[in-house]
Amino acid sequence: MAEGQRVLLLTGASRGIGHATVKRFSDAGWRVLTISRQAFDPRCPWEGGDRNHIQLDLSKIEDVAAAIPRIRDISAGRLDALINNAAISPKVMGGGRISSLAMGYADWLHVFNVNFFATVALVQGFRDYLIESRGAVVNMTSIVGSRVHPFASAAYGTSKAALAALTRELASDFGSSGVRVNAVSPGEIQTGILSPGTEAIVQNDIPMRRLGQPKEVAELLYFLCSDNASYITGTEIHIDGGQQV
Asked: End-to-end alpha-carbon separation of the chain, Å?
């Protein structure tokens, strides 16, 4: 690692928004560390990617906690930004939502472990590095954290609402140390996980009448982790073409 090189830790990096984010930060000269339950994906290459990838199942919180010392070693004692992007949203056959009445405790816990509790574990595990660098945390929430969505499970929606609340709490707790904590709330972004029927949402619910692009989300994430966002903390920024209005 070059002296003074900034370091990003990103969860959920193998496709879509995660892939675009890896490229944006890497192209800007950052060292990018990634976490995914899958092995390094050569379809999402970046400089040093195979050496800087940690295969880890975020649904197993005890494994996340146990992996913190290893990730700290890989980071070489520095972390300037943590982006919590990994998330899961189980669906019924055909891509429809699973209601709150249809999910058992084990399924709720599985979703919350990945979407919420893993974020808590990583922030706590790297708090000293973030404080030392006066760094940034960005949590990926979602438009479904504030409304029922036809394709998002109840557990996914409530986990994202909880993550938005956690963002405010962390911003308050970290405030005096100079660490900034924000959330980015995407709407319909053109990735491989869109469900059939999204076209109707684009035409009926999005004023801009188009899907967002992963690189547009990546640019916002980069801005929030840069010095240009030095007085922004505790906020949730919507990037959804006006879908929330």
From this structure: 44
